[in-house]
Amino acid sequence: MAQYGRPTGDKADDGNWSSTDESEGSPIFFSAIDESSASDSDYITGDGSSGDAEVDLELTNGLSDPGVTTGHKLIYRYNTDAGSSSATLTVSLMEGSTVRMQESLDVTGVGSYTTRTYAPTNTTGTISSYDNVFLRIAFTDDDMMDSVYISQAYLEIPNAAAGSDAVPMALNTYQQMRNK
After folding, report:
1. What is the C-alpha to C-alpha distance for residues 113 and 115, in angstroms, rounded to an integer?
2. Which pTM does this prediction carry?
3. Based on CB atoms within 10 Å of each CB, which residue in 48, 55, 89, 143 is the most buried?
4. Number of other residues whose CB lies within 10 A of the CB of residue 178
5. Which residues partner with 161 through β-bridges?
6. Using one digit for the tens of pLDDT, what is the confidence trace for 17-74?
7. Are 120 and 70 in contact (CB under 8 A)?
8. How much is the CA Rg of the chain, to the nearest whole Å?
9. Where are the alpha helices (DSSP H) in 64-141?
10. Per DSSP, which regions of the chain are E strands?
C-alpha cells in the first residue's frame, strides 16, 4: 500500500498561473489538480509569455513517515502548446527551502496530455516532517510563446513501517509457560 499527498491548498504563485477553478475572480490552483483519478477538464495553466512561471501547492498533512528515503514518487499530468521551441517543466518536492526530489523535463511541443511518474532511487536527504512538504511546479519557455497545462499532481510515498512494539514470539512463549 501507499500514502498519497495531494494538493490541499495554494501556498504561493508568481502571478503567471491561471486556473479553471476560481473563487470571486481569483484562481484556485489546488482544487484543479487534486483528483485521485485524472480529469483533464480542470487544470492550471502556466503562461510562458511572461517569462518563468512558478506555483507552490500545499500537500495533505498527516502522512506517516515511512522511515525510508526510497519509494517516493511524484506523479503529474501535463500538456503544452504544440509550437514551442524550447520549454521545460520542473516539478519539485520541497521541504521548507530544501529540494527533496526534482525532475526537469523537456516538454517542447507535447500537444496532448501525458502522465509522468518520477521515481528516483532516493530522496535528497531524509525528510524530517512530511507535514512541511509541498509541491513546486515551474515552467520556462525560451521563446515565451507557449503555456503548460497541469491537470493532476501528487506525491506517493510508502506506508510507514510496522511498529517495533511487538514482543518477540520466543519471549511470549516463555512468559506463557512461566505463568502456568
Report:
1. 7
2. 0.86
3. 55
4. 7
5. none
6. 999 999 988 999 999 999 999 999 999 999 888 778 999 999 999 999 999 999 999 9
7. no
8. 21
9. none
10. 2-5, 7-13, 17-19, 22-23, 26-27, 44-47, 53-59, 73-80, 87-95, 98-106, 114-118, 133-141, 147-158
